[in-house]
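>> received
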Amino acid sequence: MGSVHSCNPYLGNWKLKFQAVHNQMVASALAVKKCHEIDSEAKMGNMLCRLENYAESSKPEDQLQVLFEDHFNWFFTDVQAKGEYPYYMKRFFDENDIHIEMGEDDERILKEGSVDFITISYYMTYVMRYKGETVPKPTGRLVSDIKNPNLEMSDWGWTIDPIGFRITLNHIYDRYHLPIFISENGLGAVDKIEEDGSINDDYRIDYMKRHVEQMREAIEDGVDVFGYAWWGPIDLISSGTSEMTKRYGMIYVDIDDYGNGTGKRSKKKSFYYYKKLIATNGADLENDI
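>> returned
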């Protein structure tokens, strides 16, 4: 029997993939335009999974790879925020025989339907090494193959880099000069229930505290950040590993990786910390819960 992927017309077909992407971005721009027509004061943003990259060395080739990786990460937001295709995609399209079929009004729609703010997720930073490609292709990898020895890691090997958060917020604002909302920032970890039922997830509080501190530094730098949300308020199945053991929430859910459990929900220590963080608008970050 053949692979289940053999009938997938999108597998390895860059033309079909980027045509689909184009259609989605036109649809997004039309949604922004319609929102503004309904309410001229309303604001709409996009969603960027920001992958901040460091070069493995000072070699120019490694720096070049960072540029390549950044271009593919910026691409969608460049179109949605600037309202036009970025220059750097032309060579990739030409050398991969990609020809986007555009409607006669598509370019105008993209320009008129640019977003009002940038929404991002940020979890970790990546290390890049030159791959020897003059014109690279996007990898789609969520976790870097190269580990950063200067950073601690989560239970699942994700780097913990609060300063990288400040760096990426500056990069985003410098590129777009649009307000930023952080919709995802969080730590997947194994939580232990104590005999009294409490869950003392100080590691999650520490992660949150350090990232909010660096977000405040970015705001002091001049970055316009108008919102911060934790991923996620309640434990849920990890999309990356399809398990409940990797818990992100501030509320514990009594369900295991196989769906067994009562479903009972319990507030972790981080719940009360986040409550205080909201009440003080980030002014009080001490872990004195």
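>> The helical segments are 14-38, 60-82, 89-95, 106-112, 162-176, 202-221, 269-279.
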